[in-house]
Design a protein that fits this description.
This protein folds into 2 domains: 127 residues, no CATH class; 125 residues, Immunoglobulin-like, CATH 2.60.40. The strands form 4 sheets. Strands 1, 3, 6, 7 and 9 form a 5-stranded mixed sheet that branches. The protein is built from 4 helices and 19 strands. The chain is of the alpha+beta class.
Amino acid sequence: MKNHLFISAFLLASIVTKAQNTIVLDTIYANDQKNVALFFPEPIRQGITGSDNFVFTYNREKEQYLGLLQAKPGKESNLLVVNRDGSVFSYIIKYKEQLSKLNYFIPMSSRIGNERPLANDSIKAADSETSTTKKHQYYERFCAYLLDRKQRIGHLKKRKEGIALSVENIVFDKDELYFVIQIKNNSSLDYDLNFLNLSIETRQKGKKKSLQKLYQEPLFRYNVPSRIAKNETVRLVYVLPKFSLSNERRSVLELNESNGERNLKLKISNKYINNPN
């Protein structure tokens, strides 16, 4: 088991050397003030940085698509990430005091190779990639179709300082739920998107009431902007695995501004989740 979860220094060196000889690696900037989020096409199994002044964190207990990068001032280094399917990604990482980008959505096409390039594994990886590509193509077509429709599920909207966040529709198709989301910027300033997260909140009963929140990782994101210009409206779609909620649980859509405080939380009751269109 450990052999599958641990990459030897020799393998790391050979992969990176081969990648550097054939591919110009992209550069990702980070600092010690903000988390830089990297969303990979498959769950992260292992992530390694080449220098102690960079820290890459990910869920080691339960494999997830999200990893967070932070950096302290120092020399540039490299980041190597291995996904659950063996796909290998490599980047140059540098410290930068001011960051212009906080979210990276990594496509499968940017991988530098596979951890185990054996014949059978290559065939399986190719089949898996083909299957993933086809599914993503279906998601993209269906998301575009939903944005063309005028169907609405109810009045789900939150406003703050000229920013309006709303869920126009929730649609069930096959084994997924599609959340059609609108962000309207009626203010005089552009809105830089830090993150847009969907979570499930559970209210704990008893004398000491508490609230537990569980982040839901989308299977696919469609038309997500990094910036919403003043007086601009954007519509996007999040695709998530099908789920239902009890009366003690609800969904929360959280919109967070980069370098700002115009943050919104839109609560979605279980009746909308359990009765999608």
